[in-house]
Amino acid sequence: MNKIIQSNIQKYLKSLTVLYVEDDESIRTELAQFLRRRIGTLILADDGQDGWSKFLEQSVDIVITDIKMPRMNGLMLASKIKEQSPSTPILITTAFEQTDYLIDAIRIGVDKYIIKPIDTSLLMRDLMASVKQSHAEQQLELINKLFDNNKEGIIVTDKSNSIIMVNKAFSEITGYLPDDVIGETPNLLASGRHDDVFYEKMWQEINSQGSWQGEIWDKRKNGEIFPQWMSISTLLNDAGQVSHYMAMFTNISQWKADEERLKYLATHDVLTGLPNRNTLYDLMSLSFANADRNKESVAILFVDLDDFKPVNDNYGHHVGDILLQNISKRLVATLRSGDTISRLGGDEFIIVLTNAENRDDLSATVVKIQQAIAKPMEVGGHHLSVSSSIGVSLYPEHSKYAERLISYADTAMYQAKKSDNSDYVFYQEG
């Protein structure tokens, strides 16, 4: 034992409570004086029965007891204590003629056997050894509890990357029991979503830096692929060489789902699920670029539902919301895959139609859209039907700018609302 360890143990002794049981008053008094200078708290008992009562009454870290005592001898006391608290160290003191009790003491689990008259230097050696062992066992127990109770999954491998330990959270997250994975490599969890380059870079960082962390996708026992945030560290032996690897990971499926949800909400209308205004402009830019490349036209339709406000006023906003959701689904079903529909807000929609050179075909599409909107539906027991007014502007004929084209289509839509002849109007300059 080096000086640092010895010093730490001596400090640790100062924090301990020791129960000393001895029926001989003179021996008890003399040794008590010695112990009080070296330990934290000393509890004295004059026989086994008294010692047992005090053990139950107080929190005791170590027990020192004589064997031959009235009412309850030391071996019986040791047996009861070990039954109650197996980890509590017990030192037995006895005279030479009492060595026949040694076998019983070993059977009970007594930690040390000290011959009287007591050599205090040997007593301290045995006491410190017991403390060291007990402290190590407590530390190991604490580590095991931390290992098993950790909410993060933990994998420990040897230096050849064979799994030697996993914790409870690992099994809960992956579905694999310890017997399923011990002796296997973590490749058992590979999802197939990462290429060789990914793993090469990961191991390069582990070997050069001693650790790595990042997002990785693994596969559960049931085949389900899931994302996790993983940290991998090297564990070194006394020679500074890698002896083990430890990986800790957290299931981030919910975090990823929330992230995707936030991305979705940033680009889509909450009520209808249609692209929102910001996304609309991005999609219009793509449509315009394709139109330029193919020398085609793009039609911008500004759609406004007629008499939508009375639906909200008469039946409530909940009914109005369902009506908007149903109309949105109808419009999506009516359009081609390359077309775009966006809800600006309220009862206003923008539709972007590609390949819109033929005015007759375009008019037919507009009528088809109006028919889809006007088709009666039942919402909350109410039979509802709304019409629409639509204004149309054309790219690049009227403008090459999205904002201006929407404004032109909006102007044409208001002309359609005022018109007695048509429910849709093509924008005309001037």
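Next protein, fold it too.
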Amino acid sequence: MIAKLDIAALLRDFAALLKKYLGPLVIRGLGAVAMLAMNVLVARQLPADQAGIFLWSVAVLMLASVVVRVGTDNSVLKLASIAFSEGKDDQLYRQQWFSLFLVGTVSLFVSINAVAVVWLVPFFSEDKRWALTYMLAAIVPFSLLFLQTRFLIAARKSSLGIFFSTSAPFIGFILLIFLFPFEDAATAAAAFLAASLISLTLALGIFPPGNRPGFPAKADRRDMLLMSRHFWLAAVFSEMIIWVSQILAVIWCSPDELAWLALGQRLASIVSLPLIAVKSVISPQLASAMSQRDFGGLARGLRESSLIGLVIAAPLFVFIVAMPDVLIRMTVGEAYLPAVDLVLICAIGQLVNVSAGISGGMLAMTGNEKLLRNIIVCSGILCVLLSIILIPVYAAVGAALAFSITMVIQNVAMYLFSRQFIRTCIKESCHE
């Protein structure tokens, strides 16, 4: 009875906090839903082999975009926020010009060379070549868009920044699907390129760079790049965990299997949607607890984030496990019923992800950034190794296993290290 009352009180507190952070939360949730909707609509409109090629090219774009941003999206968010709060407009615009120029140059270089490789290497079919060409071209506007959203957030336009970084290209793509129906992966990729260009233009229009272009001083540029380097490594390996098994699957899997894998992974991500709410609501509490050296509050935050996430995610997980075929028929259609096993495998990894609560964020906020980075890097390497071992033997199932096993190990590690840190801090505070 006491446990029930505690859980009820916990959920009431959570609801109150949820109301406070409802705006950003809804926008983040919209982004997750928009990306899922894009996958569903592509699966319903294109033949399975063409859907597989398109969804695989999206995975390539997502990973490449993180690589070419070289961590600047995180460093400029911090530096631009400081410049804006201090009223240093010139400094803010110089940061904007420099970071956009840097990422634009790197992304253009990578895009051109990657397209050249695609057309020179005989491995790729004609369909894959054209789809990849358009999607690799999208690296430039998509990466610049994500960087520009950091300046929107820094300039206290958080909701717009979150919208453009999580939702705008996907919503734009969905609108283009309805306006201009298409029948192959190449035209779908061209539509995504167009949606990215339109989104970037709108984002730049809302917060344009200053009228006079210029770069920060050499020392400031060096500091920005040094800060970016630390963020970049963790960001790349974090994205690798999500996308690398899909990308490597192209070597051993048919286009149909690529579609089943991509959609299985995205449908399973429904389980982790509550984590968006948990992170948005509980993270500010953890930051406050850490600043006050309230280690008991940190322990409660970790426990509560895990419990609340599980309470919300459990029914979704049970539904997926009990009726995966129903979920597939409701969303992408009967043609994708071979993805049933893939959905189940990936759902297990996502449930563990939710169960870990905000342990990763806690490590980041408590001075354990290097430990968190090492966990993420090791997890990324593990995912690559598992993909290389399992996919040749089990095809798409192997890719799903690589993803899910990595998610389990990574989140268990983050949770255990978070608990150990809190326990150590509580013991030390008791001895003081």
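About the second fold: Confidence is low (pLDDT under 50) at residues 1-5.
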